[in-house]
Amino acid sequence: MVCDMTAIREIVAQHGRLSADARTLEFGTNLYLAGLTSLATVGVMLALEDHFNVEFPRSMLSRKTFESMESIADALGELVG
Amino acid sequence: MCLDDESLTAAYRQYQTELVEAGLLISLGVPGLYGRSGIFEGVIEHFEQYVTQRGAFARAEVMRFPPMMSRQHYLRTGHIQNFPDLMGSVHTFQGGDREHLKLLEAREKGEDWTRNLAATESMMVPAACYPLYPTATGTLPSVGRTVDLRCFVFRCEPSSDPARMQLFRQREYVRLGTAEQALDHRNGWLKRGQEILNAVGLDARPVVANDPFFGRGGQMLAATQVEQDLKYELVVPIATAVKPTAIASCNYHLDHFGHAFDIKTADGKPAHSACIGFGLERIALALFKTHGFDPTQWPTDVKRVLAL
Known about the structure:
The structure holds two protein chains of two kinds. Chain A is mainly α. Chain A is about 45% helix and about 0% strand. The longest helix of chain B is centred in the middle third of the chain and has 21 residues, at about 180-200. Classes of the chains: A mainly alpha, B alpha+beta.
């Protein structure tokens, strides 16, 4: 896997304001069902951009991109190449 | 700016100039702030009477709020997260003699005299239904509540488009209740709203829409709003047919305001809410554009419906 899953997990835990502890979730768990709100998604997005030094293009700014840690990794994989 | 934007701006300016020259709008020196003539107000008054007539079945509670609301309540609406660029925060001078002199000196020197103003307890109301929710905290009756509102609302978006005013009136019917009650209200009023607009000769059609959420994160919020089928607008060409303007919107807020203001349904769950908002100035502008600047010359059917 291209991306550092530990960092993604840590960012989701810190910025996702989930009802569950992100450290206990599977990578494929639906984060919206775990309590990720639209606004918290923005926090997660900005933290990911800072950490991985990327910018999500407009086409990726959808609910689907941030659905799970796995989908986030896929998106970052595309960006980091 | 691409050519399309330029021609759009030109169309906005042209209609704005026509409206001001005809005396329907009175320019106040700030883009998007206008006085209105008696004819303009008459059209809004008669349109509202027609809306009241069509909405009478709902036996709505009538409430009227001023265009300012509590800062604390404002902060609970989520507006600051979603639309920080549109907010209106009310500030005033609260210093003593020394500070007053400094303020006057700064003003005299052409410096920024507003920097040391202090925030008051009030914010400008961004949507007609916002002042309602803090008053609705508690448990709703099992039939829910329907409220008829009209309020001047503020959005900081100076523009040459006469339809994009910074202070304008929204007439709303808001429903508080279960998810089903809220959705029924939204869907019923989407249909009724279109009928009302069609009856006054406006070829309004519904489109799925999103709010102008702030920033890049806002693009995600907008996409989510569309995905969840929460917002519809009734659009009609005003200054230009190229880009129709929303003159009414029908929104389902899920349980956002129920959570934010602790409004509960009879069975103790967070209440859902929905509203239709008619943009009264935009409707008047669309009527003037469609039927001409002299309401006495409007089509007979339209005059009959509006009791002009």
